[in-house]
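Morning F.,

Quick status update on the modeling queue. The single chain you submitted on Monday has been processed. Sequence for confirmation:
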Amino acid sequence: MSGDRPADDEPLVVLHQETVVVTTAAPDARPVLPDVPVAPDPTVPAPRPPDPAELAAAAALAVPGVAGLYPGTFGEIATHLPGRRVAGVRTRSTDDGTSTDVHVVALLGGDLREVAAAVHRAVRDAVGGDVHVTVDDVVPVTVDDVVP
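C-alpha cells below.
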C-alpha cells in the first residue's frame, strides 16, 4: 500500500464488529459492511428482571399523594437484594404466598386513607400477594410536587 489510499487493485481490510472484511477498493467508494449479529459482551452483566420489591416500590411511588418511601429510623425497613437494597419495602415468603409491606411518606393535605388504599391497589396489582401499607410520615407540599 502506498500513501493513505490503496491502489485500485490492492485489497482493503476493514475490521467491523470483530469480523474481517477483505475487498478491493474502488476509487472514492466505501466498503459495504455485512450485517453481523453482535454477540453479547461477556464482561457486561445481562439486564436482570426487576425484583418484586422494586416493582412494589415503583408502583407505590407512582401513586399521587406519595412523597416517597419510608426506610425507618435506622434503615431497617428494606428488602436486601444482591448488590442493592429497596428501602421502604419489605417482602417475604409465607406459607400462604408472598407478603409485601410498603411504608410511605404522604403529602400533607390529602386523605391518608385514600392514599393508603391507592398504594395498596397499585402494589397488589404490581406484585400480587398479601400487601400491607403503612403511612409513616407526612410532609408539606412543595413546588416540586405541584410543578413537574
